[in-house]
Design brief:
Layout lengths: L1 E5 L4 E5 L6 H4 L5 E7 L3 E3 L4 E7 L5 E6 L2 E6 L12 E2 L7 E3 L3 E5 L1 H6 L6 E5 L4 E6 L4 E3 L4 E9 L20 H12 L6 E6 L3 E6 L7 H5 L6 E5 L2 E5 L4 H10 L20 H13 L3 H19 L17 H15 L1 H12 L4 H11 L25 E3 L6 E8 L2 E5 L7 H20 L2 H42 L6 H16 L2 H15 L6 H21 L3 H15 L4 H11 L1 H20 L21 H25 L6 H16 L6 H20 L1 H44 L5 H13 L3 H17 L1 H26 L7 H4 L4 H4 L1 H5 L12 H8 L4
Antiparallel strand pairs: 1-14, 2-3, 2-13, 3-11, 4-10, 5-6, 5-9, 6-7, 7-11, 8-10, 12-14, 15-16, 16-18, 17-18, 19-20, 20-21
């Protein structure tokens, strides 16, 4: 199909990528051409067309031509002129032909407002491909032919079996294709030092930003957008992002390469950007490991309860266990106990070191050799006999390792750090920088022989003798804090302990604290009122996670949250914490508070653990004495989870409230201004501009609300498409493997092979996908006006913020507040941030400016 485009006015014409506006130049709305009009009256550039939209400010018009959608957008940012320069008699559904007047515009008025008169003519049909033919940039008179738009459908035709010799259509998943494309578009394999993902984003650590073709990346059909966080390129894809990452890793030694030119690190990041990028880069790859461990642990707990397997406790009696119990014990415990190894590996990898160094160091720090397995009979247990370098097993605190020294009566030892996290993070970072240092002076001739050994020794030894003992001191302090909590009346002490338990889990010191509480129970049969708090804290996080699953409007967040909950029910909270509650912050804090409520109730009643071998999760109720206490504890679990769930319903929001957020920033800025020497007149003007920002957000509240609902519905379409594509790809892979299996058989059956090839080539869910795509496109068309209204509202908000920033920048002594004011972007982009399409802005006030404020020097 060919559509001829004629000059609607005397004009200069140029290609779309030369437009001064990056949105149009990047072809985010579609491809086309840009005209710069010389006259005020515009006529139809199409031979025959139907008007599909007249925007209320009369600066933009939609047309349908031969089933294709077009947009004529007169001027850049002219939406802010509220229609004043434009006049039109055009109505929706009105037919126009070549030369018919569609609108007039006062070009002089646009220029007087310092706006561009560039007018893009955009092809907006996303289900069709466009090729622009016979196009030359230059001057055209009204009615002259500019170019021809050649339009073809993107829907693929099903392959037909023509003869017996036809072979299988080449099969490559869309993720493999996308992976190859991304490697090329980010500048080749040499231009990124790492690739990883979170729930919705594929993340590259880029070396030279100039080599990245961001525009082409955004044009990929599965890409929702891109975002830069310092040197980290975030490609927003959705739930499929991990599949693309996996394909990139498969292609790590791929043919898609680039020259090494310009691969020097040229992108700078703020400290906060680096911290948040590091959290995502190190934590996100561990989520599948934690979730798998949680699910297996849940299965193991069930099997223990029904008597199929035996709970092996701490694992010191595995030699006496049956094989099935041993297998499930190892499957359920290894992922959690050795999680630090994976953190060490990912930390080393993230910071650009050799991940195999991180793996080896992590394994060493988690080694059970440090536990003195088999040496129990020779262990020193009397504190008065402890000697430096001797293996001890402290009966009071449960410390087990090679003795260094004591603080009070708490022994500091060299030990295994299985179940911890912080020592591994420190070790991973140390390994990277020690390796860099060694490379600088070690001769290349002996590098391969000695470098790895030096890095490992210089990393492990400080962790064992310095970092580990420091964390042991933290454990020691926490132990006494916990014991002190027991003296607080009305169950509040138990409540406080339950509240801080999950933060302790994050640091890794929870192991020492738990052992301190468990040892009196094991050795002296002394019941513990604090041990039930551990499981209460678990159910608090479960309730908060359930709240996210029920309340989120993001399908991927819901899927991840629901996947983590089963492990939590059986006592494993790491999947919940690291995949859902901690990244969103508020659910984690809600869980901690709910744990306080549940812990306090438990403390008042006086529920205590009497069975040292109690299971985790809801089966933990069997660890307390008496049916009444067991039922009460089960009720407390339910109440705790319900409190967390209720608080989530009261506090959860998918996005910030723009008005309240801006008011909060206004108050903060006002409090800062009170400590400055600015004149009262200047302060008053600033406060007036701040008030204008809030008022503008109030005025545009409805536009944001409607756009959020629009994004929710678009997400539903996309989720349906992803499900169909996953189903299609799964079946395609199955059929593809079937063909290959038949071809590789010793006795080949030509008829079966032909049949299998025909089955593979003809299988397609294109019809179902096209139906959803069409529904989505119709929805987008029907709501085009809604999107434009939102964009107008957002621009108005942005202008009100910019007026304040411009003013504050002229006040030299407090110009730093202009940077602080960039936090308004979290309200401006609240919908995009809430649905994972954009990162939340962060800001840290410079120490120097804080000092000046404190001393009233500004």
């Amino acid at each position: 199909m060919e559509i001829k485009i004629y000059a609607p006015v005397n004009c200069e014409v140029k290609s779309m990528q030369k437009c001064s506006d990056p949105t149009f130049a990047g072809k985010m709305l579609g491809d086309g051409i840009v005209i710069e009009p010389k006259n005020n009256v515009f006529t139809s550039p199409f031979e025959n067309a139907t008007c599909t939209m007249v925007f209320e400010t009369k600066h933009a018009y939609g047309f349908e031509v031969q089933g294709c959608e077009f947009l004529i957008h007169c001027g850049i940012d002219t939406v802010n002129l509220n229609g004043k320069p434009f006049k039109t008699n055009l109505l929706k559904n009105m037919s126009v032909k070549l030369g018919d007047q569609i609108f007039s515009v006062d070009l002089k008025s646009i220029r007087e407002n310092n706006l561009s008169t560039e007018t893009p003519i955009i092809f907006t049909s996303t289900d069709k491909k466009l090729k622009i033919k016979n196009f030359k940039e230059g001057t055209y008179k009204k009615g002259e032919l500019i170019c021809v738009f050649e339009v073809t459908s993107e829907i693929k035709k099903k392959a037909k079996i023509e003869n017996e010799n036809e072979d299988i259509i080449k099969f490559e998943s869309k993720y493999a294709k996308t992976a190859k494309e991304f490697i090329e578009l980010v500048g080749g394999r040499k231009n990124f030092s790492d690739v990883y993902n979170c729930m919705t984003r594929l993340r590259f650590k880029i070396k030279n930003k100039d080599l990245v073709d961001a525009t082409k990346i955004e044009k990929n059909s599965i890409v929702k957008g891109i975002n830069w966080n310092g040197s980290e390129l975030q490609v927003i894809i959705g739930g499929e992002c991990y599949k693309v990452k996996d394909e990139i890793l498969k292609l790590d030694n791929a043919q898609v390469e680039t020259t090494s030119e310009g691969t020097k690190e040229v992108v700078t990041s703020t400290l906060s950007q680096k911290i948040f990028a590091a959290i995502a880069g190190i934590m996100a790859p561990n989520i599948p490991i934690l979730m798998s461990a949680g699910i297996i642990a849940a299965i193991y707990s069930i099997l223990n309860t029904i008597g199929v397997t035996v709970d092996l406790g701490s694992g010191d009696k595995t030699i006496e266990a049956d094989m099935l119990s041993l297998i499930f014990y190892v499957l359920s415990k290894s992922g959690i106990l050795l999680i630090g190894v994976f953190f060490c590996y990912n930390t080393t990898k993230y910071f650009g070191g050799d991940p195999l160094y991180g793996l080896l160091i992590g394994i060493i720090l988690a080694s059970r050799f440090f536990m003195g397995t088999g040496a129990e009979s020779n262990a020193i247990t009397n504190p008065s006999e402890y000697e430096f370098g001797k293996f001890i097993m402290d009966p009071q605190f449960g410390s087990r390792g090679w003795y260094l020294f004591s603080i009070s009566n708490y022994p500091i030892v060299i030990k295994s750090y299985e179940g911890s996290v912080l020592p591994y993070l420190a070790a991973g970072i140390m390994a990277v920088y020690i390796d860099i240092w060694v490379k600088k002076w070690m001769p290349a001739a002996i590098d391969i022989v000695f470098r790895a050994a030096i890095v490992v020794v210089l990393t492990v030894v400080p962790v064992l003798f310095v970092i580990g003992p420091v964390l042991s001191l933290v454990e020691f302090g926490m132990t006494y804090v916990v014991k002190g909590l027991g003296y607080i009346p009305l169950g509040i002490g138990v409540g406080l302990f339950a509240m801080i338990w999950q933060p302790l889990v994050l640091t890794g010191v929870h192991v020492g604290v738990a052992m301190t509480l468990l040892i009196p129970l094991m050795t002296q049969q002394e019941p513990s009122i604090f041990l039930p708090a551990l499981q209460i804290a678990v159910f608090a996080q479960v309730g908060a996670c359930l709240g996210v699953a029920l309340l989120t409007k993001n399908p991927m967040e819901r899927r991840v949250a629901l996947g983590a909950i089963p492990g939590g029910v059986f006592g494993i909270t790491e999947p919940i914490i690291y995949s859902t509650n901690l990244p969103k912050v508020k659910p984690f804090l809600v869980g901690c508070f709910a744990a306080f409520v549940g812990g306090t109730i438990s403390g008042i009643i006086g529920i205590a653990q009497v069975n040292p071998g109690a299971a985790a999760g809801f089966l933990y109720i069997l660890g307390v004495d008496g049916l009444t206490n067991q039922l009460l504890l089960a009720l407390i679990f339910v109440i705790t989870a319900a409190v967390a769930l209720g608080l989530m319903f009261l506090t959860y929001s998918q996005k910030v409230n723009e008005t309240k957020y801006s008011q909060k920033l206004n108050k903060k800025i006002d409090s800062i201004l009170k400590n400055t020497k600015l004149s009262e007149k200047a302060k008053k003007e600033i406060n007036e501009k701040l008030l204008a920002i809030t008022e503008m957000f109030k005025e545009n509240k409805e536009a944001y609300s409607k756009y959020e609902k629009y994004i929710q519905n678009i997400s539903k379409f996309e989720t349906s498409l992803i499900s169909l594509e996953e189903k299609e790809e799964k079946q395609k892979t199955k059929l593809f493997n079937k063909v290959n299996k038949l071809k590789k058989a010793k006795k080949q059956n030509a008829e079966l092979i032909k049949k299998a090839i025909a089955e593979f080539n003809s299988y397609s869910l294109e019809q179902e996908k096209t139906k959803i795509t069409d529904e989505r496109e119709n929805y987008v068309k029907e709501n085009a006006k809604l999107v434009l209204i939102y964009e107008k509202a957002k621009k108005q908000n942005e202008l009100s913020i910019q007026k304040y920033i411009d003013y504050i920048q002229n006040q030299e002594t407090v110009s730093e507040l202009a940077n602080y004011s960039k936090l308004y972007s979290n309200a401006l982009n609240s919908v995009e941030i809430g649905y994972g399409l954009q990162d939340k802005a962060v800001y840290k006030m410079p120490k120097e400016f804080k000092t000046k404020l404190k001393n009233k020097e500004v």
